[in-house]
From TrEMBL, chain A:
Swiss-Prot/TrEMBL GO biological process terms: aerobic respiration
Name of the top EC class for this enzyme: translocase
GO molecular function, one term: NADH dehydrogenase activity
Transmembrane segments: 23-49, 96-118, 130-150, 171-191, 203-224, 253-276, 296-317, 337-356
Natural source organism: Puia dinghuensis
Localization: Cell membrane; Membrane
Protein name (database record): NADH-quinone oxidoreductase subunit H
TrEMBL record, chain B:
UniProt-listed Enzyme Commission number(s): 7.1.1.-
Membrane topology of this protein: Multi-pass membrane protein
Key words, A-Z: Cell membrane, Membrane, NAD, Quinone, Transmembrane, Transmembrane helix
Gene3D superfamilies: NADH-ubiquinone/plastoquinone oxidoreductase chain 6, subunit NuoJ
GO molecular function, one term: NADH dehydrogenase (ubiquinone) activity
Organism, scientific name: Puia dinghuensis
Transmembrane regions: 6-24, 31-49, 55-76, 92-113, 146-169
Reaction catalyzed: a quinone + NADH + 5 H(+)(in) = a quinol + NAD(+) + 4 H(+)(out)
Protein name: NADH-quinone oxidoreductase subunit J
Family label: Belongs to the complex I subunit 6 family.
Gene Ontology CC annotations of this record: plasma membrane
Keyword Membrane: yes
Role description: NDH-1 shuttles electrons from NADH, via FMN and iron-sulfur (Fe-S) centers, to quinones in the respiratory chain. Couples the redox reaction to proton translocation (for every two electrons transferred, four hydrogen ions are translocated across the cytoplasmic membrane), and thus conserves the redox energy in a proton gradient.
Automatic annotation (TrEMBL), chain C:
Annotated compartments: Cell membrane; Endomembrane system; Membrane
Protein species of origin: Puia dinghuensis
InterPro entries: NADH-Q_OxRdtase_suN/2 (IPR010096), ND/Mrp_TM (IPR001750)
Protein name: NADH-quinone oxidoreductase subunit N
GO molecular function, one term: quinone binding
Length: 358, 176, 465
């Protein structure tokens, strides 16, 4: 059967058979890098189009529909426009940091991609600290935003960056605790172990109510971490023009924009991995026939389907909830979500010790 | 020189260069950013050693925690964009002297222990560095378990947390 | 172990008591009950009764010296809370939290006095320090208090860094990689430059924590800026407990390389005695004078570290008791005063004869006048150094410094008795307060008149256990 796993494996065998190990490793790194960059570009194009189409659907209108069939090439045109725009650097800005910030944000997004399992056996590095690595590296993304806000030498940018920083640092706690509550069930941080443990059902269903609570908390927390509405205080246009990227234009702005969408994809992929089994098809306990039938759908489709479903949910939020005020946002985290996730973690630990999960 | 050694030298050069920039930069925000890169480089070194857990902790604690804290405090101070006044010559001399002494001490130690090599047989007893082994050791009540310090640290953190709240809590209006 | 468990649990109890009641008297009573329990629990530990069996795997070692140190710390805290607990309410609104922090400090004290690995020493010192940073800044509206807190925090963090570096060096020096202080003994670890670097860094950081010169610069500002109630706590209980840990560390870990580091301690002790005593002479505020006097007293306690013999260990226990009780007493009176300068004490004897009389006894004890506990404490310190046969110059120097100290202690007595003025307290002190002061004064005198009986007990305990 043709699957991504077989393709990657045969490429690997061929490379190591033809070149010496060092060269083969370098070539593999190169291929992986190219794939990641391509993925980024494709994701950017698809997600921006999806955002606009979903928004249009929510507002009962058509959305972009002139460029290409049904407006499908709209984002390509937008990208061309952005690429040809002049990249301004404001006077009085710290030019070095100003130009470094967008790259920092993009590099961090790329680093988080490392342990994500896209399909069965398709993972860049199955690192043994898997989810810990993800939460560690994602804490880096705040630096790029703070850097951008400060280097712009603009009040709005600075305020936006500070809000964003406070928000990301706070909501990281809840996201981390939700991840830990799944880790107590799997007993491993490795992504492949987490997916394997969901062979007979996804944790969302196997883990009873605590798993559902932590799923909801995780989704809320990552919505805030990616600065999406209703938590888009950092770039609240009515208050702060455009937040930390007010001063950016052209390709540098495009990089921020791209990083934002890639981050959404990544957090949704992680949520899908932890709670919905990643590439694992929908299996139910010991219904062997049903499980086999499900296995016929390729694992990569499962992964992409789950991830895009979650992305759709997050886009849905944007048109459903009103924006919070900054103090409401912080008290939501510190006074409600954090105690709730701590208590939930305790409950989950009890369940996993007693073996009450399925 | 194999690829591993090349990676090591690249990482070390990165750490040293950014560290040097962090000390010599005249803009305080840039200093924080250089420090960030230096600390990330150290995390890279841990990855290179195969100590993934320590690397992740390095990133979480230093980069995600401490540098963000530093940046926030820079934001809250006035005139963070101005160049820092250049340090006194006397102070520069003394700090250079201190750095030299530290360097000399390190060299002395290295020369003393340069014959000290990990024997092949030691690898058998090398501790298991996987995260579950670390976790078990940390909470183990057996001979080399660290559950007592772990609990003591929890008291320490509780005390610190109460302290933070006492400092941050607003007094009720109308009082004193 | 009883003490560590009880103090940690009672810290949490205090924290919750703030939620369940707003009555300050109730909160204070809960704290007093906790302290009584602590004293009893620690005594129970000494006679061999343990609340629960915890196998600490030699990370802690409960010997008599450490447990006696605990007993003195907890006993003095009890007296301190009984005397000055009421004044803590004036500092801020978070009374329950202040008590919780004090209990956590005591937990740290119990660890520092009984540690057996450098890891536990570090944790204990940190548990002591962090609540103290907060207590120093408890008076949030007072800029001086804020400044003191920040200064203390920054300097404290710096010295903690030095301590960690020292511990890391020693960890490397053992070659086998261990934190146990028994393994630093010379049979197991060679005295290499790495070892000496670690030792010196530990010496510096501990000297910093007990505010010995030349690492004392934070002390006057912090003691002066902190709310007076908490200055009293920091200058007495915390300081002597860290001293117990200090002596424990150098006795158990570095005892056999003594001749290598003795000279450093001698220099530090001489500097501390000189700076503490001479600077105290020039102070105008009694509170600041007491801060310098606490540096000077630390100089005397360093003599025990220098000698590290049986006399020194007995003596430091006696010194801890005499110094803590006398200083707590003086601070309790000082807190009640309107004016903290020397002039503020003018004519206090006429207004408040009991306060003035007890204060005189405390000051005499601090100055080391015979018939008070302070005399024998100082005598033991000096004789311990004489017993080593070296450093006679330091003994003579210490006696001279003690003579200088008489000047500034007597200045307060002179102000109280021989100067006219309206030295007045803020409110008329209650009968209980006066009674307790008298009890403290009696303890100080008993320590001075019959130290033999107490020391006999002590030496029997130390040598037989």
């Amino acid at each position: 059967m043709l699957s991504i796993e077989n393709i990657t494996h045969s490429i690997d065998v061929w490379l190591y058979g033809t070149f010496n190990p060092t060269a083969a490793l370098l070539l593999e790194s190169l291929i992986v890098g190219l794939c990641a960059i391509t993925l980024f570009a494709v994701l950017g194009l698809v997600l921006v189009l999806m955002e606009r189409k979903v928004s249009a659907y929510m507002q009962i209108r058509l959305g972009p529909n002139r460029v290409g069939p049904g407006g499908a090439l709209q984002t390509v045109a937008d990208t061309l426009k952005l690429a040809m725009k002049e990249g301004l650097t404001p006077d009085g800005a710290d030019k070095f940091l100003f130009n470094l910030a967008p790259f920092m944000v993009i590099v961090v997004a790329m680093l988080i991609l490392v342990p994500v399992a896209f399909a069965k056996g398709t993972q860049i590095w199955d690192i043994n600290i898997g989810v810990l690595y993800i939460s560690a590296v994602s804490s880096l993304s705040v630096i790029g935003i703070l850097m951008a806000g400060w280097a712009s030498n603009n009040k709005y940018s600075l305020l936006g960056a500070m809000r964003s920083g406070a928000q990301i640092v706070s909501y990281e706690l809840s996201a981390g605790l939700s991840i830990i509550s799944i880790v107590t069930l799997t007993g491993s941080l490795r992504i492949s172990d987490i997916i394997d443990s969901q062979q007979d059902g996804w944790w969302l269903f196997k883990g009873h109510i605590p798993a559902m609570i932590s799923f909801v908390i995780f989704i809320i927390a990552v919505t805030a971490e990616t600065n999406r509405a209703p938590f888009d205080l950092a770039e609240a246009e009515s208050e702060l023009t455009a937040g930390f990227h007010t001063e950016y234009s052209g390709m540098k702005f495009a990089l921020f924009f791209l990083a934002e969408y890639v981050n959404i994809f990544i957090v949704c992929a992680i949520a899908a991995t932890l709670f919905l089994g990643g590439w694992m098809p929908l299996h139910i306990g010991h219904w062997t026939a049903f499980n086999h039938a499900m296995d016929y759908i390729p694992s990569s489709l499962w992964f992409i389907g789950k991830t895009f479903f979650l992305i759709f949910v997050i886009m849905w939020f944007r048109w459903t909830f009103p924006r919070l005020r900054i103090d409401q946002l912080l008290s939501l985290e510190w006074k409600y979500l954090l105690p709730l996730s701590l208590f939930n973690l305790l409950l989950m630990t009890l369940i996993s010790i007693k073996g009450w999960h399925f | 020189m194999n690829a591993s050694a090349v990676v090591f030298y690249i990482l070390s050069a990165f750490i040293l260069a950014t560290g040097l920039l962090a000390v010599t930069s005249r803009k305080i925000f840039r200093t924080a950013i250089w420090l960030l890169f230096s600390l990330t480089g150290v995390a890279g070194l841990y990855f290179w050693l195969g100590m993934q857990f320590i690397a992740a902790v390095q990133v979480v604690v230093y980069v995600g925690g401490i540098v963000v804290l530093i940046i926030f405090s820079i934001f809250l101070t006035q005139q963070s964009g101005k160049d820092l006044p250049s340090p006194l010559r006397r102070r520069t001399v003394f700090s250079a002297l201190a750095a030299c002494i530290g360097f000399a001490l390190t060299c002395l130690l290295l020369s003393r222990y340069s014959s000290f090599r990990v024997k092949e047989s030691d690898y058998d007893f090398a501790p298991d560095m996987s995260i579950s082994a670390i976790g078990n050791q940390l909470l183990s009540t057996s001979e080399h378990g660290y559950v007592l310090p772990f609990e003591v640290i929890s008291i320490l953190l509780l005390a610190a947390m109460i302290g933070c709240i006492v400092i941050a809590m607003k007094s009720k209006p109308g009082d004193k | 172990m009883n003490a560590i468990l009880l103090s940690a649990v009672w810290g949490i109890v205090m924290m919750f008591s703030g939620i369940f009641t707003t009555s300050k008297t109730a909160i204070r009573n809960v704290a007093v009950v906790g302290l009584v329990l602590l004293v009893l629990g620690n005594y129970a530990d000494m006679i061999g009764y343990h609340l629960m069996t915890v196998n600490v795997h030699k990370m802690l070692y409960f010997d008599t010296f450490g447990l006696l140190g605990n007993l003195i710390a907890f006993g003095s805290t009890l007296l301190y809370v009984l005397l000055s607990g009421r004044d803590m309410e004036k500092v801020g609104h978070h009374l329950a939290e202040y008590f919780a922090l004090i209990f956590f400090v005591l937990c740290g004290v119990a660890i520092v006095t009984t540690f057996n690995t450098l890891l536990m020493l570090f944790l204990g010192i940190e548990i002591i320090s962090i609540p103290l940073y907060i207590l120093t800044g408890a008076d949030k509206r007072n800029l001086k208090s804020n400044e003191a807190s920040l200064k203390y925090f920054l300097m404290g963090a710096f010295s903690t860094g030095l301590m960690l570096l020292g511990i890391a060096f020693l960890y490397g020096a053992t070659q086998t990689g261990t934190f146990f202080i028994d393994d630093l003994w010379s049979g197991k670890t060679a005295v290499t430059p790495l070892f000496m670097a670690g030792l010196l860094l530990l010496l510096v950081s501990m000297a910093f924590k007990v505010s010995a010169a030349p690492f004392h610069f934070w002390t006057p500002d912090v003691y002066d800026g902190a709310p007076t109630v908490f200055t009293s706590f920091m200058a007495t209980i915390v300081k002597v407990s860290i001293f117990v840990g200090f002596i424990r560390l150098f006795d158990e870990a570095f005892g056999d390389s003594q001749e290598k580091w003795q000279v450093f301690v001698a220099i530090i002790a001489a500097a501390t005695l000189f700076i503490g005593n001479v600077t105290a002479v020039f102070q105008q505020s009694v509170k600041r004078m007491l801060a310098y006097s606490s540096i000077a007293q630390a100089g005397f306690m360093l003599l025990a570290l220098l000698a590290l013999n049986g006399v020194a260990k007995e003596g430091i226990i006696l010194y801890a008791a005499a110094y803590s009780i006398a200083t707590i007493g003086i601070f309790a009176v000082l807190i009640r005063m309107k004016d903290y300068t020397f002039e503020g004490f003018n004519g206090l004897a006429r207004q408040q004869p009991v306060l003035a009389a007890t204060c005189t006894i405390f000051l005499l004890s601090l100055a080391g006048i015979p018939l008070t506990g302070g005399f024998f404490a100082k005598y033991y310190m000096l004789s311990s150094v004489v017993a080593t046969g070296h450093y006679l110059w330091l003994v003579i120097f210490a006696v001279l410094c003690a003579a200088v100290s008489v000047y500034y202690y007597f200045r307060v007595i002179q102000a109280m008795y021989f100067k006219d003025g309206d030295g007045a307290t803020e409110a008329e002190p209650g009968l209980g307060f006066k009674g307790l002061l008298v009890v403290l004064a009696v303890i100080v005198v008993v320590l001075g008149v019959w130290p033999q009986s107490l020391l006999g007990q002590l030496s029997r305990l130390i040598y037989t256990w």
